[in-house]
Amino acid sequence: MNRVFLAFAAVSACAALAACATPTHFQPAAGPGAVGYSELRIEPDRYRIVFQGGPGAPVEQVQDYALLRAADVALAHGYDWFRVVGRDIHQTGYGGSSVSLGVGGMSFGHHSASGLGVGGDFPLSGGPALQVDMEVIMGKGPKPPGDDAYDARGVRANIGPRAG
Question: What does the buried/exposed string (b/e) look like for 130-164 if buried means 16 or more CB atoms within 10 Å of the residue's CB?
């Protein structure tokens, strides 16, 4: 009975350690599917901006970080504003570990052994991971009218401090 308790305690400790969600920081993505941002220049004033959040990151945070990256790209290339001409938000899965507990038994010759446990599968990743893909057009001068146009300096000033 002590062995069963020790095994359960070890699995529980591993589950507690694995339960930490991947934090979502405003940073370049280390590779495909990694948490962070990336961009691709499509034309001189058109970019595709991607921000991949960590498991469990709120949709608002992932969207804000994509807008912040668009603002930073605009400012780095001498633009004053950007317009979002396409946006897609999708779930990229749970992306984490899980722990399963189960039941087992064995018989050999005149001896047998059995184990009893609770079966189940518990996701430990903190929730689904979200990715925002945006296509943006950038421009100079006064920001054009419309809800899809953003002042790059305003976005940097308002969202930037929350990104750390």
Answer: bbbebbbbbbeeebeeeeebbbbeebbeebeeebe
Query: Which bin fits 17, alpha (ψ -120 to 50), beta or left (φ > 0)?
Result: alpha
Rounded to whole angstroms, how far apart are CA atoms 22 and 56? Answer: 8
Q: Rounded to an integer, what distance in angstroms lies between the CA atom of residue 54 and that of residue 96?
A: 10
- Other CB atoms closer than 10 Å to residue 125's CB: what's the count? 20
Q: What angle do CA 141, 142, 143 make, to 5 degrees?
A: 115
pLDDT tens digits for 20-57?
456 899 999 999 889 999 999 999 999 999 999 999 99
**Tokens standing for 158?**
């308002």
Q: How confident is the model at residue 96, as a pLDDT? A: 47
Containing H/E element for 61? helix 59-76
